[in-house]
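User: I'm curious whether this sequence folds into something compact or stays loose and floppy. Could you predict its structure so I can see for myself?
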Amino acid sequence: MKTFLMVVQLISSIVLIVSVLLQSGKSAGLSGSIAGGAEQVMGTKARGLDALFSKVTSVCATLFIIVAISLVAIQ
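Assistant: Here's the prediction. I'll summarize afterward.
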């Protein structure tokens, strides 16, 4: 059980880091380059992508906290 929770913790932390880095900030950081590529392919600006990254960040942060508390409770 502990090993499974540690694997879930690792996966959720990696997804959380990636989703935070891909969100657009004030300067439209790394997400601006991806949205620019999507704009050339699809012809529209991918604003839904920012909403998706926001939801993924919220879910992964919640999962990360729950798993972290569970791991502490198991020890």
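Summary: Residues 47-74 form the longest helix (28 residues). The two ends are 11 Å apart (CA to CA).
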